[in-house]
TrEMBL record:
This is Dihydrolipoamide acetyltransferase component of pyruvate dehydrogenase complex. GO terms for biological process: tricarboxylic acid cycle. It comes from Candidatus Tremblayella phenacoccinincola. The gene is sucB. The lineage of its organism: Bacteria, Pseudomonadati, Pseudomonadota, Betaproteobacteria, Candidatus Tremblayella. GO terms for molecular function: dihydrolipoyllysine-residue succinyltransferase activity. PANTHER family: DIHYDROLIPOYLLYSINE-RESIDUE SUCCINYLTRANSFERASE COMPONENT OF 2-OXOGLUTARATE DEHYDROGENASE COMPLEX, MITOCHONDRIAL, DIHYDROLIPOYLLYSINE-RESIDUE SUCCINYLTRANSFERASE COMPONENT OF 2-OXOGLUTARATE DEHYDROGENASE COMPLEX, MITOCHONDRIAL-RELATED.
Length: 348
């Protein structure tokens, strides 16, 4: 490669992401591009990443066709710096010759029966294949246990219903339930920091900060953007950040930095109607909290049966690092904070 040429490479990917797939080229060989123009899209098991040009110039060589698996630091394309749009390589083709179909669909006919029974085969997407590999690594590299508890959500719901209109009017965003869970987790992590730790080699890494991932559903699947330093956040700032994440989820445009790291994860299966589940760890994190749908159920309160809005909590944790006593105590602290939510507004 000539000294004046520029290589555009795969950026550093998030933890637990070992590879990406070249999803689509936006520009062609011989085409003039400006600095900041999107050259291509990469797909990981977490997000689609747009790769911009680092300079004005001509695309001299595309080194990775569509559907190619790539890794951090790998060269994608060579650009020859040039300040005008003159094309020294001729006019670019109007069709990208690097494209390989992203899906292969095959239909077969079962002729052994009178009725036509069809089976449709569709190639796994790069995101789904990467997700499969990550789940297999979790299964092989950790010893996962799950502990459960239930929460009376009456107080949280009462506070939200009381202040949601004033909150929206003042801040321009809705007041949901997830922010209450994030703050309850933050309080519990301060009390039980081992739940915020991770294993690295032969050492335990205690993170003196709380970067809580919030699982969000997107058109391509579940991703986990990170709320940075939640120990410094309040209900308003948590809600604002989650609202921004939701907008980016709809547009499917997250920056890789927003997905990198994380010391704990909150996953809300309740939005899909899940009553109870066992969430899967997101390595190198050692714990994850699953929250579920609120259901009216009878409970005993001071020798009296009453119907209350109840919700199950599920905490999965890596038993190599976290003992059962710590996990159960952590989850009970989360429960107590949610049932007495005034503590969520105090700096304790």
């Amino acid at each position: 490669m000539a000294a004046t040429e520029i290589e555009v490479k795969v950026p550093h990917l998030a933890e637990s992401v070992s590879e990406a797939v070249v999803l689509k080229w936006r520009k062609l060989e011989g085409q003039y591009v400006k600095k900041g123009d999107v050259l291509l899209e990469l797909e990981t098991d977490k997000v689609i990443i747009e790769i911009p040009s680092d300079a004005n110039g001509l695309i001299k060589k595309i080194k990775t066709p569509e559907r190619t698996v790539v890794h951090s630091g790998q060269s994608l394309v060579v650009i020859e710096p040039k300040e005008d749009g003159a094309d020294t390589y001729g006019t670019a083709s109007t069709e990208c010759n690097t494209e390989i179909p992203t899906k292969t669909i095959h239909t077969c006919l079962c002729s052994q029966t009178r009725s036509h029974r069809l089976e449709r085969y569709e190639a796994l997407s790069g995101l789904r294949k990467n997700l499969i590999q990550r789940l297999l690594r979790v299964h092989k590299s950790s010893i996962t246990l799950t502990t459960f508890n239930e929460v009376n959500m009456c107080s949280v719901i009462k506070i939200r219903d009381m202040y949601k209109h004033a909150f929206t009017k003042k801040h321009g965003i809705k007041l949901g339930l997830t922010s209450f869970f994030v703050k309850a987790v933050s309080i519990a992590l301060k009390k039980y920091p081992i739940l915020n730790a991770s294993i690295k080699g032969d050492s335990i890494v205690y993170h003196e900060y709380q970067d809580i991932g919030v699982a969000i559903n997107t058109p391509l699947g579940l991703i986990v953007p990170i709320l940075r330093n939640t120990e410094r956040m309040n209900i308003r700032t948590v809600e604002k950040s989650i609202s921004n994440f939701m907008v980016k989820a709809i547009q499917n445009r997250f920056a890789i930095e927003e997905l990198r790291g994380g010391t704990f994860t909150v996953s809300n299966g309740g939005i899909f109607g899940s009553l109870l589940s066992t969430p899967v760890l997101n390595p190198p994190q050692a714990s994850i909290l699953g929250i579920h749908s609120v259901e009216q159920r009878p409970i005993v309160l001071i020798d009296k049966v009453e119907v209350k809005p109840m919700l199950y909590l599920a905490l999965s944790y890596d038993h190599r690092l976290i003992d059962g006593k710590e996990a159960v105590s952590f989850l009970r602290t989360v429960k107590e904070a949610l049932e007495d939510p005034i503590v969520l507004t105090l700096d304790t």
